[in-house]
Amino acid sequence: MNVPFAPVRGLLGTDYMTVRPDFREMANPYDPRERIAVVPAIAPDVAVFHGWQGDRFGNVVASAASDAKLIAQAARRVVATVEEIVDGDLSRQPVRGALVPGIHVTAVAPAPRGAHPTSCHGRYPVDRGHLQRYIDAARSDATFKGYLDRYVLGTRDHAEYVTRVAADGA
Amino acid sequence: MAVAIARRLRDGETIAVGSVSPIPALACLLARATHAPAARLILLGNPEHFPFNGGMQEFYNFALRGRLDVFFGSGAQIDGHGNFNLSVIGDYAKPVVRLPGGRAQGALPFVVKRLYLFRTDHSRRVFVPRVDFVTAPGTSPPDVYRPGGLAGVVTDLCVFDFSPARGRLELASLHPGVSLEDVQAQTGFPVHAPAPVPPSPTPTDRELELLRGRVREELAEFYPEFVRARS
Q1: Residues 126-155, chain A: which have Cβ within 8 Å of B?
Q2: Domain segments of chain A: what residues?
Q3: In this structure, is the dihedral angle defined by the CA atoms of residues A91, A97, A102 and A107, taken in order, positive or negative?
Q4: Closest residue to A12, CB basis, from B45, B92, B140
Q5: ipTM of the prediction
Q6: Which of A9, A13, A19 sits opposite B137 (nearest CB)?
Q7: Residues 6+ apart with CB under 8 A from A149
Q8: CA-CA-CA-CA torsion sign (B3, B8, B12, B17)
Q9: How deeply is A68 buried, as exposed, middle or buried, from its count of CB atoms within 10 A (0-12, 13-18, 19+)?
Q10: Which among B190, B191, B187 has a CA at the least distance from the CA of B126?
Q11: CB B110 to CB A34 under 8 A?
């Protein structure tokens, strides 16, 4: 839409109006009896999301409960990771879920279990054991560095991350 | 608590429940199995009970249009004026705890017809004289669009109704075995109460049977841990 801001019916009287100086208030130009909050547009440089399937045309199918299509239209560059790359053209077949057309998408990368440790609906549930490991690690800088070294900085690629997570168990 | 919430839900209403709200979800399923068979339930985070295909954006648009009759929230802090905090404990810039409330609760309490807050741990830590951060105010002046708002608070001790006219929480009922003094002792603001305070509704045999049977099985589909922990 490329609008610079959006009106929001809400927020007035909340402390978000205090801690966010970029949230402003104005009179509704079409009904001056109403005060309304306005918030600036978010224009991300990059959007990243995970989907079920991608194809070589950049089409991606993601959960219809996700906002993948929204963020894909908001960002300048769009990177999708997917559970699998499929043959054929996803835009020319019936899909279950939300089709993000390839015209929005900059890059698609296969990443099975790429939503881990959160869930990928229909594929795998939340990994609560690993999330707890993350929460425990996040309590101090030292333990968090240990987490990063083991799972993020110390892994060559996503496949090694998946292998290491499986080896460590819950 | 589930029965107290269920009795406040009406047949044919559109009711949305957040992704970490097992007790409201239980109440909705119970209401639908008893007096509200035509209630429409939206369970966020559960694709089987999410009637939209345009993501959370579509859900929020639906809610902002005033189409939700009932929504639930928790509230880390709640004060006597119906202000609640689900954003941050401590200073905003350097918080003790950062909470996720701003996404839904910065706007939905303005437009959802009846918002109910629930707490399973009624204490002075929760019911404070003044919230650290106003995620949503109890009342708004007339020049702010506010067709909806807080309707009540259900806790493990009692039920409060919110009176928008008086801008305050008022004790509606006490759960079995709980006295007004108990509630006041655990509440950090003066409790306004009718005399005498009515008792909260007790579950009927039929409700108990459903809570232990069919409704429990339905809840287990999307809150397996919650149900398992109470086996």
Answers
A1: 128
A2: 5-40, 46-110, 128-168
A3: negative
A4: B140
A5: 0.89
A6: A13
A7: none
A8: negative
A9: buried
A10: B187
A11: no
CA–CA separation, A110 and A106 (whole Å): 14
Task: Provide the whole-model pTM.
Answer: 0.90
Chain A interface disruption, residue of B53, B79, B91, B223, most A CBs within 10 A: B53
- Bridge partners (DSSP) of residue A99 are A61
Compute CA distances B156 → A37, B117, B205, B211, whole Å: 36, 12, 21, 17
Q: What is the pLDDT of residues A74-131, one digit of tens each?
A: 999 999 999 999 999 999 999 889 999 999 999 999 999 999 999 998 899 999 999 9
Three-class DSSP labels, chain B = CHHHHHCCCCCCCEEEECCCCHHHHHHHHHHHHCCCCCCEEEECCCHHHCCCCCHHHHHHHHHHCCCCCEEEECCCEECCCCCEECCEEECCCCEEEECCCHHHHCCHHHHCCEEEEEECCCCCCCECCCCCCCCECCCCCCCECCCCCEEEEEECCEEEEEECCCCEEEEEEECCCCCHHHHHHCCCCCCECCCCCCECCCCCHHHHHHHHCHHHHHHHHHCHHHHHCCC
Q: What is the DSSP letter of A74?
A: H
> CA torsion, points B214, A63, A90, A127, in degrees to nearest 10?
-90
- For residue range B92-114, list pLDDT tens digits in order: 888 888 887 777 788 899 999 99
DSSP label at A90? G
| Contact criterion met (CB below 8 Å) for B80 and B189 | yes
- Strand ranges inside A32-116, DSSP E: 35-40, 46-54, 60-62, 77-85, 98-100, 107-110
3-state SS of B177-191 is: CCCHHHHHHCCCCCC
User: Which domains does chain B carry?
Assistant: 2-228 (3.40.1080.10)
* Chain A residue with Cα closest to B132: A15
Return the residue matching tokens 């879920």: A97
